Amino acid sequence: MTQDELKQAVARAAIDYVVDGEIIGVGTGSTANFFIDELGKIKDRIKGAVASSEATATRLRGHGIHVYDLNDVASISVYVDGADEIDAAGAMIKGGGAALTREKIVASVSGKFVCIADGSKLVQVLGKFPLPVEVVPMAGQAVMRKLTQLGGKPALRIKDGEPVVTDNGGHILDVAGLSITDPAGLESQINQIPGVITVGLFAQRGADVCLLGTSEGVKTLT
Ligand code: 5RP
């Protein structure tokens, strides 16, 4: 199976977690996009969705799914999203698609986080994938110095010769060279650096369920 077929398989499997008549939280990225396409097929069963990015909102609307502002929603029962890396405890690195801040916000108000990923995303120790950190642009260099003191090698994310600007007006630092043996502890440490908007470690609120696409089928990790 190709990586896309594995992503499609977990996206289909995640539909089992959708609660009829409710508003669902939806993540960002290529795996989440496959999930949105599956959601489109059962859109009459749900009330609508809260999106974790402008790109996701646009794709949801394209399927005729109503997108709610989070301010108008008190709670969400299920949030479905991909990950760049996930460990056996459900701690994740996210933010490869620069949507980490809204992803963390929507996940934080959701009862259950269902992570959908192809098997290559499961790791023993997080950190091979450079850790994304969203920052206030004026604080970029200051935050980079602090991240270097923590043992990382941060780099400003650039696209088409310009810094990537997130949906929130932030910049993204990608921190290489970390072997993250205490994800929740490092999440706290980085959160405390002035200028950090969000760190792409999702450990304090990790995934409750991970649907992992493998050549033997979809495996469920809880
Ligand atoms: C976006 C994310 C994505 O969930 C993560 O990058 C995985 O993306 P993909 O499903 O395309 O591999 O965190 O900010």
From TrEMBL:
Pfam families: Rib_5-P_isom_A (PF06026). Pathway: Carbohydrate degradation; pentose phosphate pathway; D-ribose 5-phosphate from D-ribulose 5-phosphate (non-oxidative stage): step 1/1. The active site is at residue 103. It catalyses: aldehydo-D-ribose 5-phosphate = D-ribulose 5-phosphate. Keywords: Isomerase. It is an enzyme of class 5 (isomerase). It comes from the Bacteria. GO terms for molecular function: ribose-5-phosphate isomerase activity. Substrate binds at residues 28-31, 81-84, 94-97, 121. Its EC number is 5.3.1.6. Homodimer. HAMAP family: Rib_5P_isom_A. Catalyzes the reversible conversion of ribose-5-phosphate to ribulose 5-phosphate. Belongs to the ribose 5-phosphate isomerase family. This is Ribose-5-phosphate isomerase A. It comes from Massilia solisilvae. The lineage of its organism: Bacteria, Pseudomonadati, Pseudomonadota, Betaproteobacteria, Burkholderiales. The gene is rpiA.
